[in-house]
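My current task is to audit a protein record that another person submitted. My question to you is simply how this chain folds and whether the tokens agree. This is what I was given:
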Amino acid sequence: MNAPAEIIVTGRNITVSSYHRSHIADKLAHLEHFNRHVIRFDVELNHEPNPRQSKSSLQVVITGRGKGPTVRAEARGADAHAALEAAVGRLEGRLRRDHDRHQVHHYRHQRMATGTGRA
């Protein structure tokens, strides 16, 4: 079994509390089901100080790095929870599509018996 992915949280123009760090770790923990090759998640929280941008003042960018292609998702929201939910949802959708694409679908269409069994 692989070790859990390392999660690095950085904040620009915002202080990231330990509560937010643990909340982000909980949200990203269930994404390892889709791709076990991700070694590190870089989460960047960016606060826009312009009051005219209050509806989308917080931006969350999540970048997953590891073996294979780098996956990235970003979202904006009025607060940290809304932006994080949107970014995790987008990243989960991307990882789910990639996971489904690599699954082997042999035996999906099995032949039906054509005989009635009578002699």
Q: What stands out?
A: The beta strands are 6-12, 38-47, 58-66, 71-77. The two ends are 53 Å apart (CA to CA). Residues 80-101 form the longest helix (22 residues).
